[in-house]
Amino acid sequence: MEVKEIKTANADNPVISQMGMMGHEQVLFCQDEETGLRAIIAVHNTVLGPALGGTRMWPYATEMEALTDVLRLSRGMTYKSAVAGLNLGGGKAVIIGDSRKDKSEALFRRFGKFVNSLGGKYITAEDVGISPREMSWVNMETNHVAGLPGRSGDPSPVTAYGVYMGIKAAAKEAFGNDSLNGKRVSVQGVGHVGEYLVGYLAKEGAKIFITDIHEETLVRVANKYGATVVGTDEIYDLEVDVYAPCALGATVNDETLLRLKTPIIAGAANNQLKDEKKHGEAVLAKGMIYAPDYAINSGGIINCYTEVKNLNNEWAMQNAENIYNTILSIIKESKATNTPTYLVANRMAEQRIAAVGKLKRFM
Question: Residue 303's domain is classified under what CATH number?
Fold first, then answer.
């Protein structure tokens, strides 16, 4: 594989051309009038194994916005599994809808039929807006599901632990030691993963600032962990030691880079760089440490892998802890070669995929 610049899908970039530019194998558009289902499943790469990636439910403004998101997310899953050393490919699904009012058993069972139609090429799991309950509904129609209740379950605790370890690795490089006691950390988004991350940070004695679009969640998390609540826009102007984006992507962009006052960007969100090349280089030029999102947040896919391969939670937590070493090696290589961290991580993933792909041709 070679590094390809991510293009945004639009009228000048038809779907198949967009797939080619980003290296996708297959995109399945799903529609069912009776249940109201509108979904897209994207399979990016299956060289290392079946494409595993969660399903996200979000009220996208347009279908093109949903397509752009699922293409970027599925590509990230390929790289995430490769860097984590897992025998999995990358895929993702998005359901267009409001997760707080549009869910139904019928909708998710219909989605499960679409997943099943891919014959195991894509394994789904939960993501933003989805819980293990909905995955149980999907499982009624297909066995190609991970993150089910009673099995590996909610991947959020493992994801958050890996992000926490990645933050400590970045702190080690930035400050000379990895202690977060007394460090100022801003956490943008305190949903499932964000809240668990706040818990880890609070336990170590960090001073935590949080924001979220859901007021009731924000108040509950603030009271539980003693965090300081700030506005959704104010988060970008704080002077902190770590900015941890844990909501949706593209929060590192032209505007925010003029405002962020932090030596470290390290969080759980996917696709944090709005433009991978442009903003990855800008972060490097500003002297900030950026922990590549798919490398630091791979705890979720590690957790799901335990279910696919019948491993245990102890194995998952040990591998999530190793994210510390992965992030540290990426940062050190970036500094040694003056290369943006995203590009260092991309090359690590691509080299493994290419090596395994070559091996398979001789098997």
Answer: 3.40.50.720
DSSP-assigned beta bridge partners for residue 209 = 186, 228
Contact in structure between 132 and 148 (CB atoms under 8 Å)? yes
> In terms of domains, do 122 and 176 share one?
no
Is 145 a member of any domain?
Answer: no
Q: CA-to-CA distance for 218 and 185, rounded, in angstroms?
A: 16
**Stretch 29-57: mean pLDDT, rounded?**
97
For the cut 80, the answer to whether the pLDDT of residue 86 exceeds it is: yes
For residue range 103-115, what is the model confidence (pLDDT) as tens digits? 999 999 999 999 9
Rounding to the nearest 10 degrees, give the CA dihedral for residues 119, 122, 125, 129: -110
Check 7, 80, 92, 207 and give the catalytic one: 92
Are the C-beta atoms of 267 and 244 separated by less than 8 Å? yes
* Residue whose tokens read 């909708």: 107
User: Is pLDDT at 6 greater than 70 in this prediction?
Assistant: no
Amino acid (one-letter) located at 361? R
For β-strands 264-265 and 289-290, DSSP reports them as parallel
Q: Which two tokens stand for residue 324?
A: 């510390």
Domain count, the chain: 2
Q: Are 80 and 33 in contact (CB under 8 A)?
A: no
Q: Per-residue pLDDT tens for 92-106? A: 999 999 999 999 999
Please, are residues 22 and 71 in contact by the beta-carbon 8 Å criterion?
yes
The answer to whether 92 is a known catalytic residue is yes
**Alpha carbon distance 293, 226 (integer Å):** 26
Same domain for 341 and 289, yes or no, is: yes
Asked whether residue 1 is assigned to any structural domain, the reply reads no
Q: Which residues contact 225 (CB under 8 A, 6 or more apart)?
A: 198, 199, 202, 208
Distances (CA, A) of 145 to 37, 86, 87, 140: 18, 17, 16, 10
User: Do 127 and 164 share a domain, yes or no?
Assistant: no
- Domain of residue 218: give its range: 156-349
Q: Would you say 327 and 295 are in contact if contact means Cβ atoms under 8 Å apart?
A: yes
- Tokens 């807006």 correspond to what residue? 129
**Residue positions counted in the chain:** 363
**Residue 3, SS3 per DSSP:** coil
Q: Let me know if residue 322 belongs to a domain.
A: yes
Does residue 275 lie in a domain region? yes
